């Protein structure tokens, strides 16, 4: 629905089905709460009267929610002009918000299952800046209207960049990628959450003691160590199932496309459909991310280093910059090259290794982190109970060798290089990151050298940029080599601060 205003662009309303969506969502919430409330009221009022009271209360709540949303729909309108996008809303407190079209960096479409059934989407128009006033949300409009807004607001009339790289689909869904879901950090987290959820729900219904007794009965004849191992394995199995389900929900129907006009578009989602668009002129590089479990099986994911995608509450998602989920490393390299329109990906460049002094620093840090809990338990064991001495010994036996391995791996992961128009930095062990940043996107350098680094002849150089995380660091490089790397990466930027003598 639209209304004309004196020769200017038309004002449009949200879709009226928003009232139906609100009513159905409220009905679902009321229905979920109805069972325990009915059980609680049945003892006082009787079952029949409790149901009648529940139905009356449900009708009142659903009616109030639908009426409130109808008022919101009546008082909300938007328009897209040649220079600005305007959104007016509110009844008692009227809000008039406006975004300059030249500052718009993202137009994202999201649709949960109910919206998808009704042919609607939520459109989120953002400038990439921090703060609630940097985003306009149209919730909901028709799918066709959402697509029209996305094309219109992101079309800058920019000709495609020169090169032989293909347009259209750059990567598509492959069910085989699901094998990397169980080795992500999400699986143990979901396993722990599942165990905690069972205990919490059993406590709510007053049956936590029975649950614990049932578990104890199952392991009554099992040695304590094996009981702990089996419990951990059961939690991990639940976490693996949860990770598989979460991966399917997030990445089903995945497609990465290059659209006419120079925009990369990611579409994905099984129940909740998501669409994220990134202008190529805002792209400053890619980040090849390899969490430890994923890296051990030879996989990596690709994130975009781009301006205009601030990580704040408006994005509602931590993976808003992800262009490609965890896939085989060769596939990730190929897609990264296609995204950057390069013959070979800079993230695959041969990196300069860092001095051995950097290895010592990582080993000392890793061992110190592992020794902390051991020393605390040892002291408490001397003061309180000898049992803590045995737990301290167990922690030392398990965590000290593990810390040494992680420290060595962290050193092997260090590296930096220049590859064509990109500077490349790599670091991390639990989460290894190989970032390829356009040299033209560097706006400054930060050089840090602690007292310990100075004694070891090391320093850390950080390239600052307006894109991605804002800073990409080559940690613990040789002092002269690190400065030469920064000077060569962006000639003239660091030269006034260098003493060639």
Number of DSSP strands?
Answer: 21
Strand proportion: 25-35%
Cα shape: flat
Termini Cα gap? 72 Å
**Cα Rg:** 28 Å
Q: What strand order characterises the main sheet?
A: 8-7-6-12-11-10-9
| Major β-sheet annotation | 7 strands, antiparallel
Low-confidence segments, given as residue ranges, are 311-318
The residue-averaged pLDDT reads: 84
The percent range for helix content is: 40-55%
Total domain modules? 5
- Count of alpha and pi helical runs: 13
Label the structural class: alpha+beta
Q: Kindly report the oligomeric state of this protein.
A: single chain
InterPro entries: UCP026631 (IPR014529), YdbS-like_PH (IPR005182)
Keywords: Membrane, Transmembrane, Transmembrane helix
Transmembrane segments: 19-39, 51-71, 185-205, 225-248, 366-384, 390-408
Domain YdbS-like PH: 73-145, 411-481
């Amino acid at each position: 629905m639209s209304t004309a205003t004196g020769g200017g662009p038309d004002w449009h309303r949200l879709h009226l089905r928003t009232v139906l969506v609100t009513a159905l969502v409220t009905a679902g919430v009321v229905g979920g709460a109805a069972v325990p409330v009915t059980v609680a009221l049945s003892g006082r009022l009787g079952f029949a009267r409790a149901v009648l009271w529940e139905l009356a209360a449900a009708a009142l709540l659903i009616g109030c929610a639908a009426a409130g949303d109808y008022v919101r729909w009546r008082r909300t309108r938007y328009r897209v002009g040649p220079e600005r996008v305007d959104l007016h809303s509110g009844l008692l407190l009227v809000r008039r918000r406006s975004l300059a079209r030249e500052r718009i960096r993202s137009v994202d479409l999201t649709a949960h299952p109910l919206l998808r059934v009704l042919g609607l989407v939520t459109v989120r128009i953002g400038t990439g800046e921090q703060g609630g006033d940097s985003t306009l949300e149209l919730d909901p409009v028709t799918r066709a209207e959402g697509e029209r807004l996305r094309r219109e607001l992101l079309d800058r009339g920019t000709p495609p960049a020169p090169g032989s790289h293909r347009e259209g689909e750059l990567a598509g869904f492959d069910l085989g990628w699901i094998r990397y879901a169980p080795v992500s950090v999400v699986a143990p987290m979901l396993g722990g959450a599942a165990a905690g959820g069972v205990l919490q729900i059993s406590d709510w219904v007053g049956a936590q003691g029975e649950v614990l007794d049932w578990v104890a009965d199952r392991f009554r004849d099992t040695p304590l160590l094996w009981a702990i191992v089996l419990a951990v394995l059961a939690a991990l199995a639940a976490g693996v199932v949860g990770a598989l389900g979460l991966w399917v929900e997030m990445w089903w129907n995945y497609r990465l496309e290059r659209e006419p006009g120079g925009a990369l578009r990611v579409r994905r989602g099984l129940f909740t459909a998501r669409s994220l668009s990134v202008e190529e002129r805002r792209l400053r590089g890619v980040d090849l991310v390899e969490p430890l479990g994923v890296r051990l099986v030879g996989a990596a994911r690709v994130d975009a280093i781009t301006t205009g995608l601030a990580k704040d509450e408006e994005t509602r998602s931590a993976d808003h910059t992800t262009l490609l989920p965890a896939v085989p490393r060769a596939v990730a390299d190929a897609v990264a090259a296609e995204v950057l329109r390069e013959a070979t990906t800079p993230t695959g460049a041969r990196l300069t290794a860092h001095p051995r002094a950097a290895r010592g620093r990582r080993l000392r840090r890793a061992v110190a982190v592992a020794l902390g809990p051991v020393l605390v338990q040892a002291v408490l064991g001397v003061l309180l109970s000898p049992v803590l001495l045995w737990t301290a010994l167990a922690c030392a036996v398990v965590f000290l060798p593990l810390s040494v391995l992680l420290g060595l791996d962290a050193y092997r992961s260090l590296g930096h290089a220049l590859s064509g128009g990109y500077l490349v930095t790599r670091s991390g062990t639990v989460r290894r990151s190989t970032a390829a940043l356009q040299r033209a996107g560097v706006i400054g350098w930060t050089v840090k050298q602690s007292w310990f680094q100075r004694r070891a002849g090391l320093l850390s150089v950080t390239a600052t940029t307006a894109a991605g995380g804002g800073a990409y660091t080559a940690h613990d490089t040789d002092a002269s080599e690190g400065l030469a790397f920064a000077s060569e990466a962006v000639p003239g930027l660091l030269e006034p601060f260098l003493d060639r003598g």
